[in-house]
Specification:
single chain, 234 residues, ten-stranded antiparallel β-sheet, signal
Length: 234
Amino acid sequence: MKKIFLALAMISFAGTVKVFAQAQAEVKETVAIIKNNLVESKEKIKKYEWIETTTTFVKGEEKSKKQSQCYYGVDGKLVKVETGGSTPQKKKGGLKGKIAANKKDDMADYIQKSVEKIQTYLPPDPEKIQQLYAGGKTSLHVLEPNKKIKLDFLDYNQKGDGLSVTIDKVRKIILAIDVNTYIDDPEDKVIFNIKYNTLPDKTQYPETTSLQADKKKVKIVIGNSGYKKAAPQT
């Protein structure tokens, strides 16, 4: 009887080891897909120009909308030229006006920091992805067997944050990126969700980014559209 139990235990252990090895192999393969897409798209996107539209909502009300033409200069840096936006509201006078102006300035500062925070995660850095994977800060979620996988990367930019990448394993492309982080105070949690899309030459880009800061009742939506080959830079 003991021999039977021992044999069953060994079979169970072997099965566990096999499942673990398969999971590790899947993580390694998915990390490679993510890195390859990020590296290739980073270079390909420099050949394009597009329109970026940033819309800000406070307490559910649209407060501003800004559009910019985006392209890469000869120095390889991203250039954004503002092309339009909503008209600023008229300022109120007197003490109430000053209080309102101060609140508006504080909110504008917070929104600016939020937009800058988004930029620290997009696009994700392939080297950071590799370092977190090597450091064991990666977990796997199978959303659809052999089709859709999500990898979580802990402490991507700062302690306690998280970056998740959803992959289409069949087409080997990024579908979405989700981030859980904070601006100044760790208690001031913000989340943003990025929907990725793919151009005909397989260049991947963040089509829509939505940031939600519940504590401040702020929502920021950034859309990228109208991609076309950029004019030659002189």
